[in-house]
Every structure is written in C-alpha cells, then in structure tokens.
Specification:
Length: 264
C-alpha cells in the first residue's frame, strides 16, 4: 500500500497520467501482446488493475479525480484512498490517506508547497472555450497546443517533451505533474491507416504512446523518486450492444486500467 500522506508530507513529486478514453480490455490486450513494453516495466507486477471510473467522460472524471475520487476496484471492499478532501467530523480516514483542507487536490497540494502543472491533451484542457478552462484553472500552470491533441499523430511526443522541460524548471521543489494523454482518444484510426476508430486503432495508439511514456518516466526518475499514478478517465464504446462513444453507463466505458506505484 502507498502511504500518500507520508509521500506528500515528505515533498515527493507526483506524476499523474490519464490515458484519455482508454478501455481496460484494450490496455490489457495490448500489454499481453507485447505492444507496450515500457509500460510493462513500470506497472506493479507487470499488470494493469481493472477499476471503475467515477465519470463517463473527461470533465466529470477529472473533476472527481481532482476531488479525491480515483477509479475504484470492482468489488465491495476498497483499499484506503490516496487522497481526499477534509471530510465531516464523523468520518474516519485511514492514516495513509492525504487529507487536504481545500476544495480540490491541486489547492491542497499548493498548501504543501507543491507546484502544480497541467500538460493538457483533449480540448477540455485547451482553454478554447470557457468550459475548456475549468480544469486548467485548478493548476498553477497549464500547457496546451494543437499538437498535443489527438488528431496530431505524434501528440504524445510533444506532450512528453513539454513535461520533461517543466520538470527541469522545478528541480528544487515538489512537483505535481499532470499529463492528459490524448493519443488514445478519438480520432485514432490513423494509427492503423483507417478513417474510422476501433478497438484495434486504440490499441495501436497506446502502442505508439508507450515509447514516449517510457521516456517520460525514465527522464523523471533518473535523479529522484516519484509517486506515479496512471489510469484512464473512462473508456469508449466501438459498437458493443449498439453503443458508440462515451458519456454512457456501458462496461466498455466504465472499466478502466489503473496503476499506482513508487518509482525505484
């Protein structure tokens, strides 16, 4: 178990990656097929955990994450939460949970001298609209460019380059570095040379992103330890039971991959 209260009180930097729209079954199949060797080296026991998302599309899922509600295991008994807002007095919180006396995690981390930085991916992080500013406004700094977004076939490389540059700027203070990987969000048919999106093209998108995510983790952890959290915010339906897309309570959307670990 990760004692997040101890991790944060000690000023350990945190990398939080969301693989946008990535289904659990796609992540698991790509891993077993050897398409994601860099992630395989990082994942605890070399496996993804299957979890259930608190939101069926990007905005509610990330709002929940930043409020302390990460994806849950598909079982009645749950492990202690990594972090949560200060609860009412009658509630008991595990001593390993980081409790922040603030309306969201980013403000709570700032109170503990963290610099919070967002490397956006999908347009909910783009500031192109008022709604696209809601999530970025929670951070000290946010970065988004069109080449970070999923229509760009090399989006993850651009995002990781930016993330590594940010990490170089903040070597003397704890960092909460958030990266929303857009490659696994539609459109991703171009990774298989197709105009339509599918289970197969999402797996190909993840295989593409794997190299750069490995580069990111290697670059960050070469000099110090990090708490690393990786998960999808939701999945995507590609025609199962007649459903397409997200924002629906279908298993293809609700089931997401999750991993939390301390780097070596």
């Amino acid at each position: 178990m990760i004692n997040a209260a101890e991790v944060i009180n000690s000023g350990t930097s945190i990398l939080f990656i969301t693989l946008d729209s990535l289904r659990y079954d796609v992540a698991r199949a790509a891993l077993h097929a050897g398409q994601t060797p860099n992630l395989a080296k990082i994942l605890p026991g070399g496996q993804w955990e299957e979890r259930r998302t608190p939101g069926t599309f990007t905005l509610p899922a990330h709002t929940a994450f930043f409020s302390g509600f990460l994806p849950k295991l598909p079982q009645p008994k749950q492990p202690p939460r990594l972090w949560e807002c200060r609860p009412p007095a009658f509630k008991t919180v595990d001593e390993g949970t980081f409790v922040f006396d603030a309306p969201n995690l980013l403000t709570g981390l700032a109170q503990h001298h963290y610099r919070t930085v967002c490397i956006g991916g999908v347009t909910y992080f783009s500031r192109e609209t008022p709604l696209g500013s809601v999530l970025p406004d929670m951070f000290h700094e946010d970065y988004w460019r069109p080449e970070f977004c999923s229509p760009e076939p090399d989006s993850t490389r651009h995002q990781v380059d930016q993330a590594l540059a940010v990490a170089e700027w903040y070597t003397k203070r704890p960092l909460f570095l958030f990266v929303n990987v857009s490659a696994t969000h539609v459109p991703h048919g171009h990774y298989t040379g197709d105009s339509s999106d599918s289970w197969q093209s999402q797996a190909a998108a993840l295989a593409y992103a794997d190299e750069h995510l490995g580069r990111l983790v290697d670059g960050l952890t070469s000099t110090k330890r990090w708490l690393i959290i990786m998960c999808a915010d939701h999945g995507d339906a590609f025609g199962e039971d007649g459903y397409h897309g997200r924002g629906i309570a279908h298993p293809a959307v609700l089931n997401v991959p999750f991993a939390a670990l301390m780097s070596e």
